[in-house]
Amino acid sequence: MPGSPPKELSLDNLHFSDFIQAGDTVAWGQACAEPLSLTQRFLEQQNDLGQCKIFAGLSFSNILRETRADRISICSYGALGTNAEIGNFIDILPCNYSAIPQHIANGRLNIDVVLVQVSPKGAQGYSLGLSNDYLKTAMQHARVVIAEVNERIPYTTMDEPLDESLIDYIVPVSLQPLYPQKSTPGEIELTIAQNLCAYIEDGAVLQYGVGNLPSAILGSLSGHKDLGIYSGMITDDIMPLIESGAITNATNRIKSGVSIGGTVIGNQAFSDFLHNNPSIELHPSTKTHDANLLSKLDRLVAINSAIEVDLYGQVNAEMLGKRYIGAVGGQVDYMHAASTQANGLSVIAMPSVTGNGKHSRIVKQLNSPLLTTCKSDVDLIVTEHGVADLRGKTFNQRAAAIRAIAAPEFQRDLVTN
After folding, report:
1. Other CB atoms closer than 10 Å to residue 75's CB: what's the count?
2. Is 2 part of a structural domain of the chain?
3. 290 pairs with which residues across the strands?
4. What sign does the dihedral 138-272-159-126 (CA atoms) show?
5. Which of 46, 104, 178, 227 is 20 to 30 A from 243 in CA distance terms?
6. What is the SS3 assignment for 74?
7. Spatial contact of 377 and 332, defined as CB atoms under 8 Å apart
8. Whether 192 and 239 share a structural domain
9. DSSP H helical segments within 198-290, as ranges?
10. Distance, CA of 268 to CA of 170 (rounded, Å)
11. Among 182, 153, 183, which residue's Cα sits nearest to residue 170?
């Protein structure tokens, strides 16, 4: 009945065969927002279900690796986190991150059942906790929504209160979210960060990704002033910058004084920091990746990475050889927005060589058949060997600038005829 409160179920009495029909597509929260009690239960009961599909985002768990391929197919916008290990088994939806809610709303990406993690009720009801991305749109269009109400999830501030009527069933649990293990940036990452640091002005509004390199870049900005955050994903790396006053969001024209993100990736300390904290808001991807909103941000700096870049400045962020290990994600949304602003800056930051040092990540032409970000949306390419500023440069000038930041031992191989 519309407007009726959700029914409570116990985990022991949750039988997905009561809710999932053959042919259904099931979606659940990504990254730290995966409702682990529900997804584990789903895995345990997969033999009881008919043929169905999972639409998944960035994963830190191994749930998808353990699903039966003869019963469950996997679709995703990328092969991120642990999903990179099964990238060639995932049916990739190659769209900009901003388009996912549109595809769901229009039925092109039909979501039948949603499994979501929420916090206990706060001042304005339930909070989506650690991710307010495309799931809200999925909840609005799904036949069934089952929510894990996890008492260990922070009550985070969202763009608007969550409509409780979107939830059909709640399952109370107490379970630590799956926080990813974090390593320390190495010398190469720290050098890249220092190379980029001088190009980021006080008052810049940052979008960034996940990993050692973004951590190093954010760590290099402790001396900056009035930085802002407007990013699809936010990490615990912003916490010391907020506490020190380097991040104030004074220039954030979307919401002054507030850091805005879609999905949280961090640790327990960051979760505690987010709890009832009005200085950080989680917005859906209909807002974090919206072109009209991004155009309002002055000094937007979009910092992304790549598997390889060619001498034209074209970016492959998806395929390594024949393996699909990346995503289009929000890179194109943010890079285009930043590169077309008068004061914006779009950045590709990456090590110059592969992890084993045997191959250059700067190539004459992309080895991948897939181009992620086009050359006209790239302002800077940054490696440990320097910065190639491509703004206003011709093809020949671009090639010379990009070649100069390749590893010295590969530069001769990059000379064009």
Report:
1. 15
2. no
3. none
4. positive
5. 178
6. strand
7. yes
8. yes
9. 212-219, 238-244, 268-274, 285-288
10. 24
11. 153
